User: Which sequence fits this backbone?
């Protein structure tokens, strides 16, 4: 997480109530949660640099249950919308067209050549701090909603 993202995010994070001792640094824990969501690694396999895996897991579980992730996403979306950087005009077509059984198979065209790493870094530098954070928060909230849906025994709703 960049310094600009952290400065934006910090005021919206919960504070410790003092009953259970001091919390480990939120930034380190959030980096661990974002790493886990991005890579799909098991909680126990989180690298040590993020702090003990159980700390990261418990904070994610606690914030999922109390709605912290949902509030962070709503705040990021509100700030982006206020800056006029979100285009809410979306066209969604819910029709389904089944492809013929022979439509599946090998590619006809070769895959596109991967872009150089320098071009990718330049692309991310033009993003505003909240834009990349917003996309990562969406991933976390989707995972939280999927957990809740599995616990309730119904399909997840990602609207």
Assistant:
């Amino acid at each position: 997480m960049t310094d600009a993202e952290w400065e934006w995010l910090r005021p919206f994070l919960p504070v410790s109530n003092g009953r259970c001792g001091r919390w480990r640094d939120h930034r380190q824990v959030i980096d661990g949660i974002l790493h886990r969501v991005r890579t799909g690694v098991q909680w126990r396999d989180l690298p040590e640099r993020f702090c003990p895996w159980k700390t990261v897991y418990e904070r994610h579980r606690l914030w999922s249950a109390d709605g912290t992730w949902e509030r962070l996403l709503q705040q990021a979306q509100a700030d982006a919308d206020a800056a006029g950087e979100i285009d809410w005009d979306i066209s969604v077509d819910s029709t389904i067209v089944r492809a013929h059984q022979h439509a599946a198979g090998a590619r006809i065209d070769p895959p596109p050549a991967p872009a150089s790493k320098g071009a990718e870094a330049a692309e991310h530098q033009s993003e505003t701090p909240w834009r990349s954070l917003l996309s990562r928060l969406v991933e976390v909230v989707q995972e939280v909603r999927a957990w809740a849906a599995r616990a309730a025994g119904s399909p997840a709703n990602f609207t």
